[in-house]
Structures are given as structure tokens and as C-alpha cells.
Amino acid sequence: MTSTPSSVAHARRLPRLAAAVVAIAVVAGGVVGLAEPASAAVVYKGSVPAGTILQPGDSVTSPNGQFRLILQGDGNFVEYGVGNQVLWASNTSNQPGATVTIGRNRAVDLMRGGKRIVRWASAGTTQSTSFAVRADGTMGLYAGKTAIVNWTSQQGIVPAGNSIYSGTVLSSDTSGARRLTMQADGNLVQTVNRKVVWQSGTAGHKGAWAELRKDGNFAVVGRDAAQKKVTLWNSRTGTAGAGTLMVQVDGNVVLYGGKDTRVWSTKPVTGLMWPVASTKISGRYGDDRGAGHVPRYHQGADAPVAVGTPVYASGTGTVTSTVANNASYGNYIVVTYGNVTVLTAHLSKIEVKQGQIVSVRTEIGKSGNTGQSTGPHVHVETRRAGSLFDPLTLLHFR
After folding, report:
1. Is residue 64 packed enough to be buried (19+ CB in 10 Å), middle (13-18) or exposed (0-12)?
2. Alpha-carbon distances of 30 from 21, 56, 226, 242, 304, rounded to whole Å
3. Number of other CB atoms surrounding residue 34 within 10 Å
4. What is d(CA 358, CA 317) in angstroms, rounded to the nearest whole number?
5. Could you give the 3-state DSSP secondary structure of residue 107?
């Protein structure tokens, strides 16, 4: 199989690929199986020169080692991020003993028994010189200083119990427009479109790192003159419980506690809220659901919550529609907030009436599995001035 640069870097393919690998990992007991290499593994830090053949167990890491691309013994080529989250995989776990050739011919080939299994390549004449795993988890095949094939894997969610190393960059999505960087000077910095919008104010502590602690605290940590570990900054959320840190597409960085609700953020949260008290997303806006689905591309975002979970209004607004037993949406509600409408669908129960005024704390229904649904969830669909928008860009998690 040959992949063009655009297909390797396709924004919608990688999240589904990662999800597929994670699903396999859960069945296998929580981790993607790692077979023992035949000999001592080689670790290439930052980049590997063209002409290198990676053997089972060999890896290429980002400059600080936070992101790791490993050729596993089962033949799967897998990139792991903070907390061993799978960010990308070749899905070749049925090719034990496979090798990977970093070619000078503008191609990366996964080989087994002299047969090419997968190729990632770019047309052109200039020879490729290296392959790199970058500080933000993205990867590239280079010809000199020019990336000729790109992999847009990235990480924007970090679970509790993990550290963010000096030099690591987290991103909300593949655009790279919204980032959180643990700088080498010790400052933790958030940027939106390259403009600094928040910082921890801990510059001058070279080599400092960030910790997402299991008690719920988020901290920047360094060492004093005696090499003793010291906290330079913290979110003061030490009673919130183990949760997650999210670099969000709405331009905010939010810490969610053990109850999956917001406990700290880099900027105040104003505007409309997510309709359920959960940050989990199972289906995203624009996902290609395949031929035969109408509409083919997902028009909203899905919150995978159990039947009977409370569904709330997103703010102060008016209920404009309540519909029962729709063939596609099942039971659903539409609430209007100025020029924005929020539809919540597949409900098990509708608890409001058309024309009713609601507020952000009003429970409007219960989640369910009605209509054209493959499992319990709430489908959230948003429109602004009548046009569809990604709900995750208009609504904020609670």
C-alpha cells in the first residue's frame, strides 16, 4: 500500500486509527502487546538517518523522549504519548518480525520476509535524509530541513499521574494553532495562533517539568540549588481527585477533577455549556461514517453516557422543539440561545416543553438510546445563524 503525504496527514484518519488501536489494547488487558525483540533494542533520540533499518524493539523518540515510536515484535509500528496513550499505529500487528526501512528514496517501508507490507512516500527527486519524531508528537520524513511526508499525530489530553517533560508540546488538534508548551526555560506557556495567552510565570528554572498529580493538583516542578524537588507553581486543586488535563479546541486549557467536572482553567469559562457532566467523546463532528449513512459525515459530537444520565440546558434560552420517536434522532430537544441552537438527541426522557425558559442548571431530559443509535449516548448538534458548527468549538465542558 502506498500513502501520499496528504493521506498520512489526514486529520480525520488518525483519531479513528488511534481509537481502533486503543480498542484492541483494552481487549488485550490495557496495553498494546509488545513482543520481545530478538536483540538489544536501539533508541534513536529525535531522529534517525535515512538508510537505517529498524529492527523489532527499536524506537525513535522525540528529543526529550516523551513521544516514542516503537517497532513492536508483532509488526505493529506504534507511537505512544504521555501516559502511554496510543497516538498513531500502522495496524500491522499481524506481521511479526517485520522491519522498517527509512529510505533515501523519499519513502518509509514496513517490510517482512523481503515483501513490502506498507509504504509511506512522497513524489519527487531530492533524496530523503532523516526521519524525526518532533516535540509535539508529530512525525516527518525529511529531505534536508524540509518535511516531505508528515504524520499529524498529536496529544491534547493528559491523564492524572503523568508528567509533561521540558520541551514537550501538547496540541488541541492537528492544526497546531492551540498549544501548551513546557518550555526549556521552565515556563509553562499556552499559545493560540502563536500568541501567548497564559503562562505559569516560572521562567528561569531550566529543565523544570509539569506534573498532573493524582490528588487533582497540576504543578510546575523544578529543583533548587541542592537539587531538591520544589513546586514552582500549582493550580491549588489538590482535593479535586485524579482527572485529566485538556488542551481544548475552544482555546482554553482545562483541568477536570475526579468527578469529570472543571476545577481549573487558563481563562474564565463563559458562554454555553456542554449538556452533560462528562468530557468523554465517542464521535466527532465531521467523522466519515461511510457510504450508506445519511448524512454520511457526522453533523455533531457524541457523549457516551449511560441511559438515564441527566441532560442539561447549555445556558439561558428557550425550548423551541421537543420531538418524540423520530426515526433518526429518537427523542430530541432543541433549545435556542440567541443565534445558537443546541440539539440533544437519542434521549430516554424529555423533561421540558416547547416555549419553556431554561437556565444552565435546568435538567431538560435524560440520556438514552432511542432512534438510529448504536449504543447509549447523547448526540449534540449545534447551529449558529442556521449553519452547522462543531459543538466542541461552541460549547464548554462543565
Report:
1. middle
2. 11, 21, 39, 19, 20
3. 14
4. 5
5. strand
CA angle, residues 122, 125, 130, in degrees to nearest 5 = 60
Cα–Cα dist 397/271, whole Å? 11
pLDDT tens for each residue of 208-255? 999 999 999 999 999 999 999 999 999 999 999 999 999 988 889 999
Is residue 398 within 8 A of residue 274, CB to CB? The reply is yes
- DSSP, collapsed to helix, strand or coil, labels residue 331 as strand
- DSSP, collapsed to helix, strand or coil, labels residue 124 as coil
Set of cell numbers at residue 150: 508528515
Residues 127 and 142: their CA atoms lie apart, in Å, by 9
pLDDT digits (tens, 9 = 90+) for 324-383: 999 999 999 999 998 889 999 999 999 999 999 999 999 999 999 999 898 999 999 999
> Largest alpha-carbon pair distance within the chain?
70
Residue with cell 533494542: 41
Residue that the C-alpha cell 524493539 belongs to? 57
- Beta bridge partners, 53, equal 101
